[in-house]
């Protein structure tokens, strides 16, 4: 479970854990500078901008004056992050005063961006040479491809075997999300289910992060891969780019990305090209943006009915993880949240908070305007069911009654107590409940009494 | 009836924008990751008054290049940031740039990035049109710009964004102004300021003219924005990036320039003059520089006839009650 929790904000951790040499190399690419700047916290961003045209060292004391005294901790966090990413460098002068300055490569690249705007590493192909799909078609393609990928994950045993997803990609997402005991069909792990409930951007980052982290095994430099991915994210959605402009490693990567729906590959008579989709251009958008979320489709009513306006097979599968399907119309999935269905979800390791935040994030625009978007009685009930599970402890036990006499009953109680196995007793009606592990001993004892 | 108008608008100012921000921040903290909403919509009102710029020490083109860099830097900070530029002319105002509708790619001319070329083109059109409108007017009008117009346009734009859905960027307005205040716009500007306050949109002002602008001081004070008059104009970008690039979220933590003294003087409704002391209508709060017999705004009768007006009003209320 913690494995998935960390990933939501983790791309930058991955970058900052790169060795200094690689980081400096990364900053030579202006797009990476931009993407990294965007992923910083607002305060850190602000500091970078403020320092952008300052070429001299700035004393730490002076910087401390920028921030209000109550919020000094925020300042520390922002500065630590910048130092960790080597955007700021720290020096100590003769008077032992700390001084900061901005990384010069980073600075130069950002200055260039500010003055000249973005210049893409490769020109789009002229539109008359290629037939471009419309933006809607492209988005539909990307989503279909991504859903197909997820569908494979959720119902890997029943999915069509004719998948085009390459072995490298499969290896990536099997790690951690799918567990396969020998000869059994692969099963989703707890984190796999949690993964499904995340929003698309977070899912994408999880997959990409895994893809990057095992790139070394495939003989690809992770820094190269990161820079290529970030570079791609700045390409324009819906334009065609020639595959000739890529090197061999990048071409293999592009094929993997096409399987996920991040780019669309097309072939002409002579040349072939790739068209970036929205998924890849969203890649550099910072993960923490709540506003990049797509439109929702779920309406939850106070009677625990759930209406999902969607045609997606994937969504149907996801909803079934915690709700029982009642009927399905061409564009509508009607299901009910019941105690059993929620317990089912808990069994799989999904938590109440995850279910609720999934419902809130995907609320239909009509209900999203309401506060709260999911009725309170439903969210409360889901939370209660969860706490119920924590409250009630199930212990296998045996029930005894019809004791011949009070003495025998008392003795049996004492015996059960001795084995630390007495759960409940009713001395009036002479009944008792004994834990399963003490049952053998009590039975033996009673037999001996006869 | 006479009172000191200088205290008129001080009591009502409060800094809701900060509160609002922290609220957003907390309401999301139940999720695993912290959502830092620094997505902002910046509406820049740029003074294009030729009478001001021709007499000013800083060339308009130099100023413009600083502004363009500043706009670029706002767009750089967050992918979802949005920038709108409204030109404040002498006789009219107009949108000259909107980052949400203009695609920054595709129109590349080679020598200049798309943002600048688009903006400059529109700006030129606007200045021409504005000049033509001016010819119709009588010569020798006051050299102030139509700030009230551009403020209203900005607020309209922001209202549209507010109504677009629950997830919208945090809007703020930045006035880059140089020309002196036009007292005849007093009422319109105050109304704009109060509607900005109501919708919790802070108005920042960067005033480059010679004296302080009372309008902008009040605007920033009332809406919780920052008023700043840069002492040095060579590196104006540094002021932009240090002060005005701060998103509303970070403003909670940062030390930003505070207003030292705000000029709360009002203009009278009758002669549009800035006054220190004057008369106020007790019914509708209109301000006059001299005693009138009747309020020109609401028609209440002043002076001796006051008792009659009051009793008439009472009688009306009574008839309504019964």
TrEMBL record, chain A:
Q: What is its main location?
A: nucleus
- Write out the GO biological process terms: nucleotide-excision repair
Q: Where in the cell is it found?
A: Nucleus
* DNA repair is among the record's keywords: yes
Domain of life, source organism: Eukaryota
A single Gene Ontology CC annotation of this entry is:
transcription factor TFIIH holo complex
Entry keyword set:
DNA damage, DNA repair, Nucleus, Transcription, Transcription regulation
Task: Spell out the InterPro entries in the cross-references.
Answer: Tfb2_C, TFIIH_p52/Tfb2
Please give the PANTHER family that the UniProt record associates with this protein.
Answer: GENERAL TRANSCRIPTION FACTOR IIH SUBUNIT 4, TFIIH, POLYPEPTIDE 4
What job does this protein perform? Answer: Component of the general transcription and DNA repair factor IIH (TFIIH) core complex which is involved in general and transcription-coupled nucleotide excision repair (NER) of damaged DNA.
The UniProt similarity line reads: Belongs to the TFB2 family.
Q: Per its record, how is this protein called by name? A: RNA polymerase II transcription factor B subunit 2
| Source species of the chain | Quillaja saponaria (Soap bark tree)
UniProtKB/TrEMBL annotation, chain B:
Q: Where in the cell is it found?
A: Nucleus
Q: Does the keyword DNA damage apply?
A: yes
**Any single Gene Ontology cellular-component annotation:** transcription factor TFIIH core complex
Tell me the GO molecular function terms.
zinc ion binding
Any Gene Ontology biological process: regulation of DNA-templated transcription
**UniProt KW Methyltransferase keyword:** no
Keywords, in A-Z order? DNA damage, DNA repair, Metal-binding, Nucleus, Transcription, Transcription regulation, Zinc, Zinc-finger
| UniProt-listed PANTHER family | GENERAL TRANSCRIPTION FACTOR IIH SUBUNIT 3 (PTHR12831:SF0), TRANSCRIPTION INITIATION FACTOR IIH TFIIH , POLYPEPTIDE 3-RELATED (PTHR12831)
Quaternary structure, per UniProt, is:
Component of the 7-subunit TFIIH core complex composed of XPB, XPD, TFB1/GTF2H1, GTF2H2/P44, TFB4/GTF2H3, TFB2/GTF2H4 and TFB5/GTF2H5, which is active in NER. The core complex associates with the 3-subunit CDK-activating kinase (CAK) module composed of CYCH1/cyclin H1, CDKD and MAT1/At4g30820 to form the 10-subunit holoenzyme (holo-TFIIH) active in transcription.
**Family per UniProt?**
Belongs to the TFB4 family.
Recorded protein name is General transcription and DNA repair factor IIH subunit TFB4
Species this protein is from: Quillaja saponaria
Which lineage do the record's taxonomy fields give for this organism? Eukaryota, Viridiplantae, Streptophyta, Embryophyta, Tracheophyta
């Amino acid at each position: 479970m913690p494995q998935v929790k960390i990933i939501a904000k983790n791309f930058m951790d991955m970058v900052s854990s790169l060795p200094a040499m690689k980081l400096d190399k990364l900053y030579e690419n202006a797009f990476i500078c931009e993407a990294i700047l965007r992923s910083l916290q607002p305060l850190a961003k602000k500091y970078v901008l403020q320092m952008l045209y300052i070429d001299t060292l700035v004393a730490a004391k002076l910087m401390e004056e920028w921030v209000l005294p109550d919020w000094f901790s925020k300042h520390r966090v922002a500065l630590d992050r910048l130092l960790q990413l080597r955007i700021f460098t720290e020096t100590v002068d003769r008077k032992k005063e700390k001084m900061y300055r901005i990384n010069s490569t980073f600075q130069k690249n950002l200055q260039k961006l500010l003055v000249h705007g973005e210049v893409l590493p490769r020109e789009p192909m002229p539109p008359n040479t290629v037939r471009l799909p419309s933006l809607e078609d492209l988005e539909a393609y990307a989503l279909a491809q991504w859903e197909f990928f997820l569908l494979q994950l959720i119902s890997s045993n029943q999915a069509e075997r004719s998948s085009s997803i390459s072995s490298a990609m499969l290896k990536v997402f099997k790690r951690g999300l799918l567990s396969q005991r020998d000869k059994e069909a692969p099963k989703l792990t707890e984190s796999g289910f949690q993964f499904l409930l995340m929003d698309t951007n977070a899912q994408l980052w999880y997959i990409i992060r895994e893809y990057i982290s095992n790139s070394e095994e495939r003989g690809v430099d992770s820094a190269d891969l990161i820079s290529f991915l970030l570079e791609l994210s700045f390409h324009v959605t819906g334009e065609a780019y020639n595959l000739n402009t890529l090197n061999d490693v990048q071409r293999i990567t592009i094929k993997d990305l096409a399987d996920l729906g991040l780019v669309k590959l097309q072939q002409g008579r002579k040349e072939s090209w790739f068209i970036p989709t929205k998924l890849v251009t969203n890649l550099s958008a910072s993960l923490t943006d709540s506003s990049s979320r797509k439109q929702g489709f779920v309406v939850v009513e106070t009677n625990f009915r759930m209406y999902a306006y969607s045609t997606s097979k994937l969504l149907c599968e996801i909803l079934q993880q915690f709700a029982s399907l009642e009927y399905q119309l061409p564009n509508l999935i009607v299901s009910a949240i019941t105690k059993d269905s929620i317990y089912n979800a808990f069994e799989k390791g999904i938590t109440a908070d995850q279910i609720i935040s999934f419902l809130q994030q995907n609320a239909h625009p009509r209900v999203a305007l309401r506060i709260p978007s999911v009725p309170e009685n439903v969210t409360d009930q889901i939370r209660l069911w969860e706490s119920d599970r924590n409250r009630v402890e199930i212990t296998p036990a045996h029930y005894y009654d019809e004791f011949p006499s009070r003495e025998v009953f008392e003795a049996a109680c004492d015996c059960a107590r001795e084995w630390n196995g007495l759960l409940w007793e009713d001395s009036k009606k002479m009944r008792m409940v004994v834990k399963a592990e003490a049952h053998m001993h009590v039975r033996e004892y009673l037999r001996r009494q006869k | 009836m006479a009172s000191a108008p200088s205290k008129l608008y001080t009591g009502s100012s409060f800094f809701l924008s900060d509160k609002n921000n922290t609220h957003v921040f907390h309401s999301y903290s139940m999720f695993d990751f912290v959502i830092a909403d620094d997505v902002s919509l910046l509406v820049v009102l740029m003074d294009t008054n030729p009478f001001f710029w021709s007499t000013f020490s800083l060339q308009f083109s130099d100023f413009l290049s600083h502004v363009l860099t500043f706009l670029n830097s706002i767009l750089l900070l967050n992918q979802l940031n949005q920038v709108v530029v409204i030109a404040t002319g002498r006789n009219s105002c107009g949108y000259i740039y909107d980052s949400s509708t203009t695609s920054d790619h595709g129109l590349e001319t080679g020598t200049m990035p798309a943002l600048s070329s688009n903006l400059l083109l529109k700006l030129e059109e606007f200045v021409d049109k504005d000049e033509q409108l001016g010819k119709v007017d009588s010569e020798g009008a006051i050299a102030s710009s139509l700030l009230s117009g551009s403020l209203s346009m900005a607020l309209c734009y922001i209202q549209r964004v507010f109504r677009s859905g629950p997830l919208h960027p945090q809007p703020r307005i930045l006035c880059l102004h140089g020309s002196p205040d036009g007292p005849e716009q007093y009422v319109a500007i105050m109304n704009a300021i109060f509607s900005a306050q109501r919708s919790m949109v802070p108005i920042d002002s960067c005033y480059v003219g010679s004296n302080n602008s009372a309008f902008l001081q009040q605007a920033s004070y009332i809406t919780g924005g920052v008023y700043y008059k840069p002492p040095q104009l060579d590196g104006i970008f540094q002021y932009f990036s240090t002060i005005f690039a701060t998103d509303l979220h970070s403003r909670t933590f940062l030390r930003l320039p505070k207003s030292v003294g705000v000029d709360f003087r009002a203009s009278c409704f009758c002669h549009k003059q800035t006054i220190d002391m004057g008369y106020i209508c007790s019914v509708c709060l209109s301000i006059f520089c001299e005693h009138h017999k009747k309020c020109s705004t609401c028609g209440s009768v002043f002076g001796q006839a006051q008792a009659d007006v009051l009793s008439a009003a009472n009688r009306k209320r009574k008839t309504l009650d019964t």
